[in-house]
Amino acid sequence: MSLLNELLQSLEKVDPPAPQSAKGFFTDATVCIGCKACEVACKEWNQLPAEPLRWTGNSYDNTEALSSTTWRHVLFVEQIPESRLSPRWLLLSDVCKHCANAPCLEVCPTGAIIRTEFDTVYVQQDVCNGCGYCVAACPFGVIERNPDDGGAHKCTLCYDRLKDGQQPACAKVCPTQSIQFGNLDELRGRAERRVADLHARGETDAYLYGHDERVLEGGLHAFFLLTDRPETYNLPTHPRRPVKNAVPGYLGTLAMAAGLLLAGALSFRR
Amino acid sequence: MAEQMTGSGDEDAETGPPKRGYYGLPVLKVPVWRWEVWCYFFLGGLAAGSFVVASLARLCGDERDRVVSRAGYLISFAAVLGCPPLLIKDLGRPGRFLNMLRVFKPESPMSMGVWGLLGFSACSSLAAFREVFAASRGPSGALARLVPARVVAVLGTGLGVFLGGYTGVLLSVTSVPLWSRSRLLGPTFLASAFSAGVSAVSLALSVNGKTPRSSLHKLERIKLAALVAESAVLAGYLRSTDRAAQPLVVREQYGRQFVLGAVGLGLAVPAIAAVAGAAHHRRSTALASLCALIGGLLLRYAIVEGGRLSAEDPETTFWHTALPDGKTDR
Amino acid sequence: LQIMRRHFARYTPELVESICGTPKEQFLMVAEALTANSGRERTSAICYALGWTQHSKGVQTIRSAAILQLLLGNVGRPGGGILALRGHASIQGSTDVPTLYDLLSGYMPQPTALQPQQTLAAYIDTAGSKTGYWANFPKFIVSFLRAWYGDAATAENDFCYGHVPKTVGDHSHLATTYEMIDGKIKGFIVVGQNPAGGSAHARLQRKALASLDWLVVRDLYETETAAFWKAPPDQVDPASIKTEVFFLPAAGPGEKAGCFTNTQRLLQWKEKAVDPPGEARSDAWFIHDLARRLKALYADSTAPKDRPIQDLSWDFDRVEPEPGSRIVDEPDVERVLTEINGFTWPGRVQLKDFGELKDDGSTACGSWIYSGVYPAEGVNRAASRVAGDYVSPDWGFAWPANRRILYNRASADPAGRPWSERKKYVWWDEAQLRWTGVDVPDFPLTKPPTDPARPGATGMDALSGSDPFIMRPDGKGWLFAPTGLKDGPLPAHYEPAESPVENALYRGQRSSPVAKFFRNRADNPLAAAGDERFPIVLTTYRLTEHHVSGPMTRWLPWLAELQPELFVELSPELAKEKGIHHRGWVTIASARGAIEARAMVTRRLRPFRIGDRIVHQVGLPFHWGYQGVATGSIANDLTHLVLEPNVGIYEVKALLVDLRPGRLSDVGAPVQPDLRAGQIVGPSTPDGQDSPDDGRMGAGVSPAALPHPLPLSTENGEGKSGPSER
Ligand SMILES: Nc1nc2c(c(=O)[nH]1)N[C@H]1C(S)=C(S)[C@@H](COP(=O)(O)OP(=O)(O)OC[C@H]3O[C@@H](n4cnc5c(=O)[nH]c(N)nc54)[C@H](O)[C@@H]3O)O[C@H]1N2
Ligand SMILES: Nc1nc2c(c(=O)[nH]1)N[C@H]1C(S)=C(S)[C@@H](COP(=O)(O)OP(=O)(O)OC[C@H]3O[C@@H](n4cnc5c(=O)[nH]c(N)nc54)[C@H](O)[C@@H]3O)O[C@H]1N2
Ligand code: SF4
Ligand code: SF4
Ligand code: SF4
Ligand code: SF4
Ligand code: SF4
Ligand SMILES: [Mo]
To answer: Which of A134, A158, A159 has the alpha carbon at shortest distance from A144?
Structure first.
């Protein structure tokens, strides 16, 4: 009896929390000092395990990329010409982009990935069955299936902290405000002013990546201020939206089906 | 643009640090799908193809083509039985397979695929059930005769077409360049499903000496049509996939399976056999059909596994995601 | 000023370029920026850390900066100053409530037997000053003795001054290392330090530990020091080590309340978050427990030598148990702070500031400079947290007297008017006839700017109203420092103790003539200039991801994953020359030892052109050891123990090494210099000071007699090393 109740209860629809203003990150690469405090704070707050110890020799970066257990990752790009004149050291703290049109969410067959009341992209661990579709769908190589628990994991945008009115752990510890958390509209305005400011100061390489609909047709809720082409930060310049392939794919299939069925039918008729 | 220069003092780096990108590390995560998935894709396609052929025979063929329906439905049922275990085995958390049925999500090909497979399995089971028991006496026979054969055939054909093609669409709704650059993977997989289905039926019937020659000829014609269609659409797929198709042709590991296996064995050999009139020799028919089946399996193997290579290569990803005019977006 | 001008005339931009390798243009750019930003309207601050300090002439460099700042008018003014960026959380505290052997408290020196300081009066005479603010020295020392010895201290017994231990030489940790090796010191208590990995010449450190009878280590982890006997690089049979090791678990920073003093002399109280786990206890608990046990042990003794312990006042028990804690015997650290702040005697009314101190024994005060931090029961100013928008006087407490900028009288011109409106800070208020401003004035409040110096007077009366540097006997900033420094009145250039080049300025005097070389020891060998065995300069430094010798970070997987292995940074040019591959292994050897590291080939490093030579430099982080989660070679196995003469810091920013591709095991069993061999080879002086010479190889040791730590190829010229002295 109680089992039935439980079952029924699980089917009962609970109203989702009331939507809040959209939240996101503006990560400004020009002020990042590569301290990796964000990486560590994220692991600490979310109690994520360390990656196996491995020295890469890639500048000071030994975690290499985002993974199911590394949800913030700091990139180190050294640009030092042989003359050693005007060297550049590009640093960027990468994170899940919380895409407005999130491919991972769109393809998830279980509904594990949802859009929260903060307009962020969140994986419900109790729902995810580890099908791996999101992994192949994410154009940024963010979400990953963890070999230990079989589930897909990525930045939650500190959903638990946001619910308590706190800012995300990574933004909180960032000593330079390279990671800025806040209301999306506000962040976008701030970012645009920052770019204008940098341009005025002669830093004309500065531009925003993902702040408007040019990326994935709706922009990214975690967007970036960069000073080199996106590829330098291992970001795709113009990622495509996977779902855009669905309808044409089905139509093509349909056409093929029509042809084959016709051929088949004719063959049997004769 | 200043070049990127860490730890590039030695010869390895002298041969050229990556021109763009980040220490040559992948942009994308490598897909987790392995043998379960390409086996499932193959079995699903086979089940769909053989069902559709059986239904065509049932709906359009004459009385002698009944053997075709019978074989097709039985093969379909056998193949479909293998699908759920593979699908479940492939999950990171197999115990939660049923969560797939929580939602009905048209934009997710996998969600649609699960529902499609569910519906198709029902049709396939009903059809097979009818084939096996319709002639028998007793309650099971009565029950089997209650199954509306034509309705099941039509419904199952629709679902089968979906099942045969959605797997290609599923792959193309990702960010993996090899899979998503072209939109032709759906029709390609469908054509391959069709040819595999016909081949399986033809194989089964050609080893059975009692099969009417006319049916074999019909099957051979359909097979040829499917092979031609598959060749055409595969060529289109490769063309539109462009340099992202490199793992399929250039790379040793998947290249051999794809070029020799999927194309040579799976398309060229049976097509030549069909044209050469292999239908007159049962053994050649059987052999050609077997080749087509193996080719169908290798096609899915090469494409699914090749996706891993494709995702690993940042240059391909950058090429795939460059702006049409090649400029950066600022 | 004229002497100084003559002295520095040789130091032209061209000379700087030829000695340091800093391009002239770059040097001039910095010089111009600094001068352009200094004046009435603008001030510049100079912040320094180890790049300046960890040299055998570190104090000279900092002195140069101080001279510059005085000349540029950047002292005592907002935005100016010369700031030591401290390393550990309370390094500043180590001079205030000292953990240093040569300081007693509040910059009062530890009495020493090497000077006539046998009586309190003699001590005051030699350590205090008649003029300037140090004229108050008797109040500080008497109140201090009252705090230590309580009722036992009386005017008749010199307030127990005789109980205070006198130094007889250099008792710093590093100098003490040698005494352990020589068997003069038998026991060692290590609280929160890891000398077996973190201190210079770590092999020597471990050897010293192995020479002890007993060792106590209080730490959060079983550090290399606690496990020195396991030391794989030394390949010593533990059975041959007699040292008994006691490892005591310590409470971490969040597990105890207390006070940090940072570089701006700011005291900040920190609350305890949680009880320490298991048997771990705070360091205060350990000292408290030890003191009580010692007092109990000697309570009935009649031996006069035990009087200091019997007379020691020790009054830090908690009155009530700490709420919410399972530990009942922790001392009350607020009572410690109360004593440091000071109170009346015997009434125990807390003092408001050090102005209330008396030299008659009616006040007690643990450290006069901290007086005012705890002015009344329940008023802990170190715990105050009011953020303002400028000076923020109510955020923590800055010594002395909550003054945020020292010598701030200098922010006004001689007439007492602000140098500039924009930078006004402390000034003479004509209407009220007193000093006022946004900070606590560092000057007698009512002494007018026009007040003349009174020759022959004592205390502040000896200084004029326009002399801001009140801690100096003459109230002036010293460009030329006739006393106080061991190396001379004006800074001069010297090469490091190990340098590939000679001193371009002083022929025949390569490195500091007064640095402590310990030349009489065979276990501190140095490479000579031109020693072809060690042609490469090595410097050591930190990584963001690890903390000093590593226990607090290498044990933590989240940090270990970020920097898992020791690596050495070298330029592509050097890598090519040596056949070293990026990411491959490198063996590094100095005259003291050899280690292995991964090669990080990067253009961050570049070869220097010094004179007509190309000198290669490599960089080595020093955080690794053989204990913990992330392990690796100990960088300090390469470094030497030559100490700066004034403060005794080691020179780990510049030494000489050689590199070979491959691991230690591949390069061939390295012949580690045998540090166990004959230790003392020359006469020793009490403080390790030895006769100045030209900085060549230590007396009594011929470099040829030292095995090269790496097998040498013949063209490197075995034995063809620098000149020997004998
Ligand atoms: N993450 C982290 N932070 C720390 C610590 C840690 O271990 N890890 N340690 C703390 C401690 S205890 C301290 S003392 C501080 C030390 O902090 P820093 O002083 O920054 O310490 P280092 O990294 O050892 O050395 C600093 C720089 O000195 C430069 N240098 C070397 N020789 C010279 C020279 O002759 N002239 C000049 N101008 N520069 C030179 C080197 O290039 C190096 O980059 O850091 C504290 N903060
Ligand atoms: N080659 C080279 N060597 C250097 C330097 C360099 O630049 N180059 N820098 C030098 C400098 S500036 C410094 S400061 C030294 C530092 O060297 P050490 O003084 O040896 O410092 P740590 O390695 O931090 O060791 C501190 C120990 O205290 C423990 N600990 C932390 N908190 C507590 C506590 O509350 N109580 C107790 N009992 N233990 C605690 C930690 O676990 C750790 O084991 O290294 C020096 N060594
Ligand atoms: S970045 Fe990837 S994981 Fe994050 S929301 Fe977008 S698609 Fe999903
Ligand atoms: S792995 Fe989990 S989160 Fe990702 S698509 Fe599958 S069910 Fe959704
Ligand atoms: S928002 Fe939270 S989960 Fe996401 S990277 Fe920052 S700390 Fe990690
Ligand atoms: S915490 Fe901030 S400054 Fe530090 S690495 Fe992360 S983004 Fe950069
Ligand atoms: S927050 Fe500041 S003081 Fe604290 S560890 Fe980081 S850099 Fe040092
Ligand atoms: Mo330090």
So the answer is: A134
Q: Judge whether B1 lies within some domain.
A: no
Q: What is the pLDDT of residues C635-664, one digit of tens each?
A: 999 999 999 999 889 999 999 999 999 999
Ligand having the closest approach to the CA of A155: 5
Residue B13, token pair as written in the block:
């780096």
Alpha-carbon distance of B329 to A207, in angstroms, equals: 9
How many angstroms separate the CA atoms of C197 and C633, rounded? 9
User: Cα(A270)–Cα(A263) distance, rounded to whole angstroms?
Assistant: 11
Q: C565 in helix, strand or coil?
A: coil
- Count of other CB atoms within 10 angstroms of residue B272: 13
On the question of pLDDT at C676 being above 50, the answer is no
This complex has an ipTM of 0.91
A154 lines ligand 3 (CB under 6 A): yes
Q: How far apart are the first and last CA of chain A?
A: 61
Q: At A42, which CATH number? A: 3.30.70.20
Q: What is residue A4's predicted lDDT score, i.e. its pLDDT? A: 65
With contacts defined as CB-CB under 8 Å, which chain C residues touch A50? 557-558, 560-561
Q: What is the pLDDT of residues C68-121, one digit of tens each?
A: 999 999 999 999 999 999 888 888 888 899 888 999 999 999 999 999 999 999
Indicate which atom in ligand 1 lies nearest the CA of residue C55: 35
Distance B51 CA to ligand 4 centre (A): 30
Q: What CATH number does residue B163 fall under? A: 1.20.1630.10
A9 falls within a domain? no
Containing structural domain, residue B124: 31-319
Assign residue A65 a region: left if phi > 0, alpha if psi is -120 to 50, beta otherwise?
Answer: beta
In a domain, A140, yes or no: yes
Of B9, B12, B13, the CB nearest to C571: B9
Domain that holds residue A77: 17-247
Which pTM does this prediction carry?
0.91
Number of domains, chain B: 1
Residue B79 lies in a domain: yes
Q: Is residue B4 part of a domain?
A: no
What is the domain count for chain A?
A: 1
**Does any domain span residue B8?**
no
